């Protein structure tokens, strides 16, 4: 068969792409993507792509009066709030061509009070005053917009007065509160500020109950759940849609949405990366950026920040999400309880555990889920338990770097140098070079932080180092006869690793053979394109490092 006919437009696109690459210019098209944009009107008016979430929003406002949504940071919560504001202020032109146009939504203008409690420092001595000032300014901005004058009372009084006045002037009121929990999360380990802020907010939110008859719709977002905080005890409890299967894709981008909305970037990406097919590129994107599940048996989604930055970069596979910063409440947790992170494996928790939120009972696993480092990987219907795991390669790498910054003493330059040695060794099947580089790396770990870790420490350390480098490493991989300590898949090699603390290398290799750990990987290697290497490693508890190893 001859070569397929190439259309003139496609030829021109390919020449432009090749020319940009030769000149060192961006390989992206001229499409403008909304990276970091949180205002719905700006996305619709100034950018070329909007992932349509208006049907989800229509279903939410049609079924609930007060709704709460928990999602990790940089996941689209603020854009959802902005979309609701535009919807209820009747900016109909912005919704032209979107899914909500095909519904029976009644276009009408409602007064909207929109608040965001994330833009202040609440940990210093002025924490409570900073909260009051922040909310007061936003209430006054809203009041001025609608021609309402507020008195000099406290924020609860002004909130009440604003709702009443807006209702008398415009009718039913909509309230949208973004990042409601930021003042509480920031002050978890500042007990005086935390309790004062909690009491202030509890009184503030009581207003919503007393004004229920004047309200059309209330939407509240945050990172954490609220059921343990008693923050909303004075109001009608919001309907928590965070784990509702109908709204698991309200924030984030599904695979279908990705391929539909970013078809231009996908086409450019696999050509720029010189991959053979579009499917190969999509597979790489899915493994590195997809995988968030917010409900049992739910569709998985991409973090919008990461995937859009990937397209703009252009097409670099980097942990863009972690570059936006680590949540301060997670940093504070690590400072208080560092050893807890070192025992992290696949965890099973109940539905109630997701809602635990109190400075005295704050649990690590739900915290990591809420922060975006873990996601739902499976659900046990019989025992009503959720299993949590890393969602994708980006988060594995991001979390590993976060841990390394707290448990290691090496500089970024040192880490990069050792990282190159480690990955080069794995890529070429050079186990000796890998183990020597690993030993040097392990010498830089701060052991004062891990004195409580025993059996699990070494496999954790190896997995964390490799995940930080973007290498696929799974620990405690189960087989029919047991579980192998670590499986590393990189390039043309699969490394089956068994670690022994203060025991011989021979016993480690014997276990690999007797348990048949390599059999599963031989079955997936029909074309013999990957070589399986079995590695036995002896770890000395006194020296806290590798003292012997052997590969076959």
Would you write up a description of this structure?
The chain is of the alpha/beta class and 552 residues long. It folds into 3 domains: 195 residues, 3-Layer(aba) Sandwich (Rossmann fold), CATH 3.40.50; 137 residues, no CATH class; 144 residues, Trna Endonuclease, Chain: A, domain 1, CATH 3.40.1350.10. Helix content is 43%, strand content 16%. Strands 2-3-4-1-5 form a 5-stranded parallel β-sheet. Strand 11 and strand 12 form a beta hairpin. Helix 6 runs parallel beside helix 8, helix 10 crosses helix 11 and helix 17 runs antiparallel to helix 18. The longest helix has 20 residues. The two termini are 46 Å apart. 38% of the residues are buried. The N terminus is likely disordered.
Measured between the Cα atoms of the first and last residue, the distance is: 46 Å
The CATH topology of the largest domain corresponds to Rossmann fold
The largest sheet, given as strand count, sense and whether it forms a barrel, is: 5 strands, parallel
| CATH class term of the largest domain | Alpha Beta
Strand content: 15-25%
What is the typical, i.e. mean, pLDDT?
A: 84
